């Protein structure tokens, strides 16, 4: 199956088991790492020899909105899928590079989370990335400016109707869970070089976040989820 360029989101997620620490403040996660669900997502056709054509440098960060905080809510899946990846799809399609303009046209994570977990009023449930993308394909999303909240108890019928104007065409995974590491890296690089947003869920080494939390100490194991807005 060939997917239309610029009208779908490529996704992947990986699990790295690391013993890290708890800080004075708990930083919420939100993604449910589900390898079985990931395996059911249609895979993008193998890249084979085209991997050799990857440029030495390439970035999509010019198409990303200004970063925002998810606060204390477990809504990172919705932030990564709606606010970041979905917004970048439009920015790339229409060649928007002004960050303020892109941010003004970003999509609402609160809306997507409510579709993902309609019964969880406190926005405290982990959610699946594949389900989030399927919802954006089948039901769409609404602009962030129409629902600029971090967590809402419900979405209206009118908002659900408006969301259908912003559906994605499709999405795909880049590789299998058991693929070799070099293939995973090259597949991600290749997709980015083709201006296709890639979503990555990582339970990451502590050294990736320690520099932004001065004075943190290692006390007990915990897992950190990083939603990579761009690579």
Describe the protein's architecture and organization.
The protein has 231 residues and is an alpha/beta fold. It has a single domain (8-228), classed as Cathepsin B, Chain A. Helices cover 30% and strands 9% of the residues. It contains seven helices and four strands; from the N terminus they run E-H-H-H-H-H-H-E-H-E-E. The protein has helices at residues 35-40, 76-94, 99-104, 109-116, 129-138, 157-163, 181-193; strands spanning 8-13, 170-173, 198-203, 225-228. A four-stranded mixed beta sheet has the order 2-1-3-4, with helices on both faces. Helix 2 (76-94) crosses helix 4, helix 2 crosses helix 5 and helix 4 packs across helix 5. The radius of gyration is 17 Å and the shape is globular.
CATH class: Alpha Beta
Per DSSP, the total helix count is 7
* CA-based gyration radius: 17 Å
Summed over residues and divided by their number, the pLDDT gives a mean of 78
What is the global morphology?
globular
- Helical/strand content category: alpha/beta
Report the uncertain regions. 1-8, 10-25, 211-231
* Number of domain units: 1
SSE series = EHHHHHHEHEE
CATH topology: Cathepsin B, Chain A
Distinctive features:
231 residues; alpha/beta; Cathepsin B, Chain A; 4-stranded mixed β-sheet; 4 strands; 9% strand
């Amino acid at each position: 199956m060939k997917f239309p360029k610029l009208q779908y989101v490529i996704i992947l997620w990986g699990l790295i088991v690391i013993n890290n620490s708890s800080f004075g403040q708990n930083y919420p996660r939100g993604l449910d790492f589900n390898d079985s669900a990931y395996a059911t997502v249609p895979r993008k056709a193998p890249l084979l020899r085209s991997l050799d054509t990857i440029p030495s440098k390439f970035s999509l960060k010019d198409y990303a909105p200004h970063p925002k905080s998810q606060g204390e809510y477990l809504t990172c899946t919705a932030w990564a899928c709606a606010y970041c990846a979905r917004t970048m799809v439009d920015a790339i399609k229409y060649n928007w590079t002004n960050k303020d303009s892109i941010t003004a046209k970003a999509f609402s994570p609160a809306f997507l989370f409510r579709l993902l977990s309609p019964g969880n009023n406190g926005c405290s449930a982990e959610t699946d990335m594949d389900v989030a993308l399927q919802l954006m394909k089948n039901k769409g999303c609404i602009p962030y400016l129409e629902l600029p909240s971090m967590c809402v108890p419900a979405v209206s019928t009118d908002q659900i109707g408006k969301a259908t104007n912003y559906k994605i065409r499709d999405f795909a995974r880049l590789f299998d869970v058991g693929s070799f590491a070099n293939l995973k890296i090259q597949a991600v690089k290749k997709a980015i070089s083709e201006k296709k947003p890639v979503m990555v869920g990582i339970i990451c080494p502590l050294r990736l976040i320690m520099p932004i939390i001065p004075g943190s100490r290692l006390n007990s194991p915990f897992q950190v989820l990083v939603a990579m807005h761009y690579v």
